[in-house]
Write a structure and sequence with these properties.
alpha+beta, Alpha-Beta Plaits, 16 strands
Length: about 260
Amino acid sequence: MLRPTFACLVSLVSAKEAIAHNDSLALDLGGLPHQHSTAPVTIPFTTLSRGEWSGFTGKLATSFDNKGDFAKFWAIHSRPPHQVPDVDFGRERVTAIFWGSKASTGFNLNVTSVEMTDPSGPEVAVSYDLSLPVGGGVFRAITQPHQIIKFKLVERVKFNPNYLAIPFHFSISMGGADEASVLQVAEKINKLEGASNMFGRGPVFVYYISEIGSRGIEGEIDSTLYTEDQARDLLENASTGGIVYLSGGDTCHEDAGDVKI
């Protein structure tokens, strides 16, 4: 029976079994002979499922080494039901990472790499980013952020979660200030370390609400560089009288946004 766990190490098959499936485990995982180098070797992977919706509601970080167990899990996960993906378990392994059930959309899980930490060894590290909802477009719903991938046969898998920092989002109301004055303030803010637009790159956004004749500036600033008070002080000093609204900067962690099903 499968049990939800955020285990950091999963043993798949013995080295002897792995070699039985492959004439040479080292050659099958990149065409490299055994070496003494410790430089990681990147392994290509294919995503079988990634998103916010699943019939599986718990936390999980594990791998599947046979068709039967994976098919049973897929039947729980796939909503609406889809055909079990094609996997050659003689040459491939499936890894599933689930962040549990969350209270809204916007919780993101993204596998960034699969690497052999030592080309001569049978272990790979699966690294993935976890991030909280940011900005608009988020609505309340129970979600299950996850990703299921497959890659070449290995003996052991370890998991490396990376909890991404959430930037501070700011909006500065400049009232009836003229355009030139607002652009001067925006130029000052763009020179602050870690300041950018809401997409995390490029200059801050300058807006004008014609209905009320009000101008302002919107963007974000890196929460790893400043405390909330420091960020607010910097923005207030740069805006020379503008009203600063600051939010975000939340800490991302394993249990963030959890709901019990």
